[in-house]
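Renewal narrative, Specific Aim 1. Our central claim is that a sequence can be written position by position from structural information alone. The example that follows is taken directly from our test logs and has not been curated for this report. It begins with the structure tokens describing the chain, in the order in which they were read.
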């Protein structure tokens, strides 16, 4: 029996070899008709034997090309046309223009085989790619995804490359970045004065320089990296001192998973994430005797490890056989450098040499960062390999929502229908460079996904640049979404849960509806609204912003609250080392309320404990004191007391007993590791006690955990175990970061609900 069928395939099906796949499948099943790209994905019309058509659709469903992601396949009968062959038709008009674009894909095995095959015409060609791998989002200037709208437009394909591009039987059929050494981009080596160095082979020379301990700025896929030999303490020290980045860990790149296993423990799941096509930085626990220089990740139990993801990386690590530091090319706090001119300007005092190429990067994208927890990835930084891949939600936006995100680790989100286009990690919106990146990013996303926002969501903090940007937009409704509510909604949406939950929103800073700084929050909320049912007791932040940079101020603030004038009598190192003059100032600030806003922040509580036990008085990057406290924790059971106090319609977590317990341990000379461990246990118990109390009041047994503090896997794990044991259903982040990088998703959904 014959049939005539029209098939709509929705999803990431463009730029991933989908049409040639369909073409071959049609030939195989002796079907006639055509395939083309259209506004929502791929359209197929097909005629032939009914049983063959069924088999054809089944194959599309079950065995699509490796990089394709199918959201939906819809098929229905049509009138027969009488096709006598099967063809790939040119794209439909992109009238409504709404096609997901693939993220960057790590070099595939077939390309790698060619790369290292001396008889192949692309032998050692650092820009080899095909329909299954290579640059995508970073080179796209506009849609549709055709070469003329990418930064490859300036390279005219040679005859051989063009033949591959035109041949449906070829792996490079319509591979937009297709190139070879005759027609494509090439490498150039420059010295620190930006003078070209003539060498017969740039890669060999780069390898030699790296082995000599030089620092090289390498232009990659989404920006510049700074690279040096990670096993050479002298080189790493020089890089660290030149970058003014005193402690923040550098990522490293190793040749393969075996090389990673020589340095760190790698579980099966971690191995899968490491070797997958996204190739993020994976946080892996260091092995004892790990030969990587201590300065790469000081005071850390983990290394951020990635495998090569471009042909250039493969060539360099393969030929040098080095473990490389591969850290973002930037001055600390600025976004990753991606334009050549900018690289020369920003990196001139850091890099000894530059390994550059002439394929322009249109959108900068950092490396993504993932930690594996309980066999699941937690995305800590969502960038290369993820963006601009949309989250497909179980939720439908009525409005086209632009959510502007928060201040630190900013990312924005465009919501339309059941898609959330989360941007790549933009960075800390604290300087002009990052703000420009944010504004350009929003414009770019609106263009390539053809979304004109009808609603804008923003954080309530009046000083955030993202908020100021939102409020300055004209002729568009705007809705402010409370920071911690947005966190919890993000977690709910990605876990596809609706209705009311208990939200535990723990982070450093978020603007509260009462104008104070929140951060240790217990909410009962749904998508639309929240009630703040409990929080950590308020404490002064003596010096405001300064108290965030200098955790000793937080410790002093807590101690002063509890012991008043008797603080100086405490027989602990923290007090002995306390600068008496500064102590007097702090007391005055707190007493008179000068530049001492109050906060319920859990991040500041971790900071305070970190300083109190002697780990860190001053931080050089966000979260450092808390991270080092986590790293120092042993396996001690037991915890400290705390009080839950009902005040009006809220429950406050009173911390005096906790601090008294820590001080008493310090006076008895208990080890830091034990105190750190007991403190983590206590925090988990506080969360459990609060949730039990809230369950009694509300009947809710679902708990969503969100906020930057839950990047702490020790706390997350202890909390999860306790809640789970007590019959709570626990929801955590996996698709968007628990930190402020994931907040835009929740903002978008909450604002869309409130606009109804
Ligand atoms: Zn390939
Ligand atoms: Zn060519």
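The sequence written for that structure reads:
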């Amino acid at each position: 029996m014959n049939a005539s069928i029209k098939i709509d395939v929705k999803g990431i099906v463009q730029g991933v070899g989908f049409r040639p796949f369909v073409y071959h499948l049609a030939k195989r099943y002796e079907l006639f008709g055509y395939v083309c790209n259209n506004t929502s994905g791929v359209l197929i019309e097909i005629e032939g034997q009914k049983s063959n058509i069924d088999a054809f659709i089944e194959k599309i469903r079950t065995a699509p090309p490796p990089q394709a992601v199918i959201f939906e396949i819809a098929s229905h009968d049509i009138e027969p046309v009488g096709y006598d062959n099967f063809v790939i038709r040119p794209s439909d008009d992109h009238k409504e223009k709404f096609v997901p674009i693939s993220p960057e894909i790590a070099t595939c095995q077939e390309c790698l085989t060619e790369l290292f095959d001396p008889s192949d015409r692309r032998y050692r060609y650092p820009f080899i790619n095909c329909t299954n791998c290579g640059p995508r989002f970073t080179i796209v200037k506009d849609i549709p995804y055709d070469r003329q709208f990418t930064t490859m437009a300036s390279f005219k394909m040679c005859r051989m490359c063009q033949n591959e591009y035109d041949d449906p039987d070829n792996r490079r059929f319509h591979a937009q970045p297709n190139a070879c050494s005759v027609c494509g981009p090439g490498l150039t080596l420059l010295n620190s004065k930006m003078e070209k160095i003539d060498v017969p082979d740039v890669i060999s020379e780069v390898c030699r320089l790296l082995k000599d301990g030089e620092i090289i700025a390498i232009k990659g896929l989404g920006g510049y990296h700074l690279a040096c030999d990670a096993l050479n303490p002298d080189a790493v020290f020089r890089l660290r001192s030149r970058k003014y980045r005193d402690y923040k860990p550098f990522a490293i790149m190793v040749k393969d998973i075996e090389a990673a296993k020589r340095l760190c423990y790698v579980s099966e799941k971690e191995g899968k994430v490491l070797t997958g096509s996204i190739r993020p930085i994976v946080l892996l626990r260091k092995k004892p005797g790990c030969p990587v220089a201590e300065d790469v990740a000081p005071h850390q139990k983990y290394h951020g490890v990635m495998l090569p993801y471009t042909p250039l990386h493969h060539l360099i690590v393969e030929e040098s056989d080095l473990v490389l530091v591969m850290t973002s090319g930037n001055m600390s706090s600025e976004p990753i450098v991606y334009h050549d001119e900018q690289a020369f300007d920003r990196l001139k005092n850091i890099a000894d040499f530059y390994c550059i190429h002439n394929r322009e990067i249109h959108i900068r994208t950092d490396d993504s960062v993932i930690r594996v927890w309980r066999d699941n990835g937690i995305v800590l930084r969502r960038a290369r390999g993820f963006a601009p891949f949309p989250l497909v939600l179980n939720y439908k936006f009525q409005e086209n929502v632009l959510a502007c995100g928060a201040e630190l680790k900013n990312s924005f989100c465009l919501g339309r229908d059941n898609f959330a286009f989360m941007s790549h990690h933009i960075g800390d919106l604290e300087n002009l460079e990052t703000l420009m990146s944010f504004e350009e990013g929003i414009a770019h996303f609106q263009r390539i996904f053809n979304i004109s926002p009808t609603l804008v969501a923003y954080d309530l903090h009046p000083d955030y640049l993202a908020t100021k940007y939102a409020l300055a937009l004209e002729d568009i409704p705007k809705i402010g979404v409370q920071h911690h509510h947005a966190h919890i909604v993000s977690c709910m949406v990605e876990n596809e849960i609706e209705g009311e939950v208990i939200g535990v929103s723990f982070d450093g800073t978020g603007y509260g509806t009462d104008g104070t700084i929140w951060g240790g929050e217990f909410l009962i909320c749904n998508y639309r609204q929240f009630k703040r049912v409990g929080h950590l007791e308020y404490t002064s932040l003596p010096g405001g912003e300064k108290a965030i940079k200098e955790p000793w101020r937080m410790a002093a603030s807590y101690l002063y609250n509890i012991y008043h004038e008797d603080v100086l009598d405490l027989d602990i190192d923290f007090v002995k080392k306390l600068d008496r003059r500064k102590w007097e100032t702090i007391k005055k600030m707190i007493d008179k309320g000068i530049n001492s806003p109050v906060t319920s922040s859990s991040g500041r509580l971790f900071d305070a404990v970190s300083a109190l036990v002697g780990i860190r008085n001053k931080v050089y990057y966000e979260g450092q004191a808390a991270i080092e406290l986590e790293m120092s924790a042993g396996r001690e059971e037991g915890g400290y007391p705390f009080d839950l106090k009902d005040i009006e319609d809220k429950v406050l977590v009173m911390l005096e007993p906790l601090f008294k317990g820590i001080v008493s341990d310090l006076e008895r000379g208990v080890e830091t590791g034990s105190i750190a461990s007991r403190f983590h246990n206590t925090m988990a118990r506080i969360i459990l006690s609060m949730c039990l109390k809230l369950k009694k009041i509300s009947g809710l047994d679902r708990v969503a955990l969100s906020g930057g503090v839950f990047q702490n896997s020790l706390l997350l794990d202890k909390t999860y175990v306790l809640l789970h044991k007590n019959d709570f259903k626990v929801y955590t982040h996996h698709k968007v970061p628990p930190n402020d990088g994931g907040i835009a998703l929740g903002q978008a959904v909450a604002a869309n609900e409130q606009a109804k």
